[in-house]
Structures
1.
Amino acid sequence: QVQLVESGGGLVQAGGSLRLSCTASGRTFSSAGMAWFRQAPGKEREFVAAIGWNGGNPYYTDSVKGRFTMSRDNAKNTVYLQMNSLKPEDTAVYYCKMRTAVDYWGQGTQVTVSS
């Protein structure tokens, strides 16, 4: 059974930075693609970023390109989302997802950006 635990969320002023972490249990992490999604109040969950099993070629939704960076450390079973130049519209619950034959989701971490 895979469990994903996100951390690093919080309250930050516009223009600030946060780094989210997602740590996975189980032995499938190093061979699995990982992704970050977010869900703002009253909105559907949306894709933010994804990365392959080896950390190559991360890709991002247009609204975060140039501001967010996704990376992974397979030795630590952890993926990261470095978020810079945060905007109020980045406010959401952020979820990580492990992409295997079955998708696994974390419980989410709240990010609030004040103007």
Note: The longest strand covers residues 92-99.
2.
Amino acid sequence: QVQLVESGGGSVQAGGSLRLSCVASGYTYIYSSWCMGWFRHAPGKEREGVATIDRSGRTSSADSVKGRFTISKDNAKRTLYLQMSSLKPEDTGMYYCAARPGCGAGEYAPMDVHWYNYWGQGTQVTVSS
């Protein structure tokens, strides 16, 4: 079994920054081969993809966060990060990390909530204007 635990959320003013972390534990065999992503869920909206990273380190980001958010993965620490800057009130929501172990070489990590096998419990981000 795999456990994902997010941290780093909080309340900030618009223009501020936060760094989210997601630590994996349990059956983390060949963590380097995992595809992972960050998703968020705002009240009244569906869960949406924020950024993803594949096993080779290729990243993709939603248009709404391009140039402001950066996803990265430290395989040695079994940790996924999301560096968020220039935060806006519309970035408010619960942020979840997701993982798909055994991602194929060259396989693209999509922003599809149904594609990932494991999810964390989430960390709340609140941005005030």
Note: The chain has no helices and eleven strands.
3.
Amino acid sequence: QEKLVESGGGLVQPGGSLRLSCAASGIFLSIKTVNWYRQAPAKERELVASITDINDAITNYADSVKGRFTISRDNARNTVYLQMNTLKPEDTAVYYCNVCKYWGQGTQVTVSS
């Protein structure tokens, strides 16, 4: 059964860092484009970062996170990561991993002092 599970969210102060993980079962992440989305309260879900399959591993980022967030994959662990540095209050949202039609349950990131 295909499943994505996010982890690594939490409460962090502005300027801090978090690393989110997206672990997959039943889906080989290495041959798929993997996306990280986020949704803040009363806002639409937005694409934050993506990484193409193992052949190219091209990364793309929303302008709002460029230079602060890094998406990467560990094919041996069938996991994709989102390293988030220099976090800002406006990064507060539920972060979701997405592959094709599959979505994880989300992990809450709260940036607050």
Note: The mean pLDDT is 95.
4.
Amino acid sequence: QVQLVESGGGLVQPGGPLNLSCATSGGIFAMYVMGWYRQSPGKERELVARITAGGGQIYADSVKGRFTISRDYAKNTVYLLMNSLKPENTAVYYCNGGYTSNGAYWGQGTQVTVSS
């Protein structure tokens, strides 16, 4: 059974950083496309960043230059380093993984709140 467990969310002031982690188990992490999505109240879930098995990355336009996705194959973990956070980045952030984009597996989500 594949499991994805996010951590690292919380309250941060505008302009601050936050680093999310997603630990995976039960699958072949090295072969997965991994992604971070987010959902704000009243809005649809949207892609934030994605990283392929080979390390190729894509980002939503709104986070380019501020967010960085990375993966540690030894730890079966994917990270999302978020810098220069803005109030509009407040959302529940979800980890996603699978053999293709928009993979079959989801984490439970972690709340990120950007507020002074």
Note: DSSP finds no helices and eleven strands in the chain.
